[in-house]
């Protein structure tokens, strides 16, 4: 199995991607997806990804902020840390992310 979904990884590299660790010490990740990448996003994650109620998102001025990107990544059996090169604020949270992933 690949460490990343290459289509998703390439798309994320074109977008603004952020991560935080919440008060429950859980990883939260979101991506600002320009509208013109919507079809590419659906193709990258597969239409079946929307079967269980879809994804939380927020329509903004020139993009869609897709919340719970960590769930999108983890449902494919991948680690958030495998996407570190496309996360804008990775260096700020890398130690905590790696610790959380190691514990799980």
Strand-residue proportion: 15-25%
Biggest β-sheet description? 4 strands, antiparallel
What shape does the CA trace take? Answer: globular
Binned, the helix content reads 25-40%
- In terms of quaternary structure, what is this? single chain
Mean pLDDT: 93
Count of extended strands: 4
Q: Span between N and C termini?
A: 19 Å
What order do the helices and strands follow?
HEEHEEHH
How many domains, in number, for the residues? 1
In DSSP terms (H or I, runs of 4 or more residues), the helix count works out at 4
* Uncertain spans: none
Task: Describe the model.
The chain is α+β, with helices and mostly antiparallel strands and 104 residues long. Helix content is 34%, strand content 20%. Strands 1-2-4-3 form a four-stranded antiparallel beta sheet, with helices on one face. A hairpin with a 5-residue loop joins β1 and β2. The protein is globular.
How would the blueprint of this fold be written?
Blueprint: H1 6-12, E1 16-21, E2 27-34, H2 38-45, E3 57-59, E4 63-66, H3 69-74, H4 90-103
Antiparallel strand pairs: 1-2, 2-4, 3-4
Helix pairs in contact: 1-2
Which labels suit this protein?
4 helices, single chain, alpha+beta, 4-stranded antiparallel sheet, 104 residues
Brief overview:
The chain is an alpha+beta fold. It has helices at residues 6-12, 38-45, 69-74, 90-103, and strands spanning 16-21, 27-34, 57-59, 63-66. It has a four-stranded antiparallel sheet with strand order 1-2-4-3, covered by helices on one side.
